[in-house]
Amino acid sequence: MKSSAIKIIAAGVIAAGMAVLGLLLKSGIDNIAFRDREVTVRGLAEREVQADLVTWPITYSLAGNDLQTIYDRVSANNNAIVKFLTSNGISADEISVNPPDAYDASSNRYSSSAFQYNYSINCTVTVTTRKVAKVRELLNRQSELLKEGIAFSNSYINYQFTGLNKIKPEMIAEATKNARSAAQQFAADSDSRVGKIKTASQGQFSIDDSDSSTPFIKKVRVVSTIVYYLED
Questions:
Q1: Whose C-alpha in 31, 115, 123, 192 is 20 to 30 A from the C-alpha of 140?
Q2: How does the average pLDDT of the chain come out, rounded?
Q3: Rounded to 5 degrees, what are φ and ψ at 218?
């Protein structure tokens, strides 16, 4: 083979190799550029749910100078409260009668002379139940205890929602769907397409009162943050 032909073939091979190398370099550069194009979006999911657990403390106070007399009144009051509850749909195992909290003014040298009794007793009967609707009904009827001579007060009534695990998967799916919709809108505005997910993080679930007047209605909320690649 003539040397000139060999040179031509060698030049062709070199040229082909450079062309392949150029394509590989271009592919790599395009891939890097593609990887640098991304969008971060957040997807929100919210639901309103009914509380499924309530803690209801019924408190009252008594004062007097004779402990035995006060004790008898405490026993009578507690029995009346328990009877009111159990006769209206609350079971005995949902009721706890807390030990009374006694204050002896005669033994406190710093006590005010304006307090005319030697003793005061604070008592609490607590209902813990999943019968939220029943408790709300009895809250409207507890004035019946006044007929028994019980000057009660309601401490903070705590409504809770304990069924989060049941709705978590659906809410996460909804938040992810909403995030992708936001990414697709962004991509459409920038003449791009949404690619694969680069990173994703699920925010913490929060459970709050829907509003102050309806604490038995809860708002469950979660926000997912997702980073998508953008493609041409």
A1: 123
A2: 84
A3: -110, 150
